[in-house]
Amino acid sequence: MRDAVIVEAVRTPVGKRNGGLSGIHPADLSAHVLTSLAERSGVDPAVIEDVIWGCVSQVGEQTMDIGRTAALAAGFPETVTGVTVDRQCGSSQQSVHFAAAGLIAGQYDVVVAGGVESMSRVPMGSSSNGQNPFGEKFLARYDGVFPNQGIGAEMIAEQWGFSRTQLDEFAIGSHEKAAAAQSSGRFESQIAPVTLPDGTVISQDEGIRPGGSVEGLAKLKTVFKEDGVIHAGNASQISDGSAALLMTTSEKAAELGLTPIARVHTAVLAGADPVIMLTAPIPATQKALAKSGLKIDEIGAFEVNEAFAPVPMAWLADIEGADVKALNPNGGAIALGHPLGGSGARIMTTLVHHMRDNGIRYGLQTMCEGGGQANATILELL
User: Is 354 marked active-site?
Assistant: First the structure.
């Protein structure tokens, strides 16, 4: 029986807005991780059949099928195709799902899944160009409401009863965990440092801010509601970055002399209210657990994307039995950043390395996505 395994996973550092990676074209940033993936695995790029690439703002420098452009920019043979996927923030996690499905179905033997977003160069929301992306029938169904993720986060905080102090405590915890991971070198094996034209080497995530305090965050102004609780300090950072995973089957890996790290055990989707938008990781997780036959206490690591602090907090409140210590153990997007189309692959790269480094058999990843959707993936360490 065919399966889908991950044999290598690599990412760039996550650059802050207008930071060290902002001068690099997103196709070139993508090419960097593709080249690094081939070098680290030792695989001949000629055996790669497709590059499935997540990208949200497919406009300007990120248009014209950046997945294909990235493969060519990486120097891969012209026989290596590429396709670009948009499932909003979960785009590159969806890329992994598509790759796994293709491998199991026999459409692929070797494939790359990943993604990119350069939010410094292609600002969030620029693809709609000020136009209405919803149309009249959608708006009529939802009483004329244009979904807004920040308002959705405010709605979650209100519905679950989270105070601003609780949200800020969670945000500080994200930075503390990420700072500990960075200082102890836990990220080094997964990061492919980027050398800029002037010789500067970007080798570390730029958004981590150790030493913060709840008192400091209390001084920040809320963004979406004057009397709200969401502000820049308890939301994900606008970022630049890319990540990629080399995937194949166990049989093909043996043929090529590759050692699998993890198997895609279960991959599901869930949909929920698109106005509150950010709650679907809860039913997606429940669906993944039910489909996998695994119990919650068998999962040793959880990655729930920190689009806003209330998202993983609501998830933790509703997923009975989930160990808080296993949630985002190396920090999340509040500290590390959230380069939209690249985040799913960045998170999965971090999860795969964390599982291997700590001998964790099962790990689960889930992300909230525009339209009130979520992917959930369970990986099994091999």
Answer: no
